[in-house]
Amino acid sequence: MTTKTEKAAETxxxxxxxxxxxxxxxxxxxGSAVARQSAKAAAKTTxxxxxxxxxxxxxxxxxxxxxxxxxxxELLPEDSSFRxxxxxxxxxxxxxxxxxxxxxxxxxxxxTRSSKSKxxxxxxxxAKQRAEKEPEAAATE
Length: 141
Description:
The protein is mainly alpha-helical. The protein contains four helices and no strands. The chain is rod-shaped and about 100 Å long.
């Protein structure tokens, strides 16, 4: 073989190798893009599945407790003081929970307080203290 044919063969081999590497790089980039999209879809599905699982767990735990309590309450005689206590306690808790939400949404918490009211409050907000004092004041009148 001559030098020209050897160089031409080497050039053809290198160009073929270059083309193969370029093609492999393109395929790798395409594969990476597909893998990224697949990973995003899998993460989205996993988050949705996890959120649904948490919701369903909380739902059934709550349903189980409330249904059991109502069922057991219904088994008690209507004139039972224990049944009346359960019913009135549940009503009072529900009323207070809803009143607490409304009070915190409507009344802003004061920015500054005196040191005397802080020591007396022991972590309770002023709205809660007023709500507790109002029924006491009405009862004394």
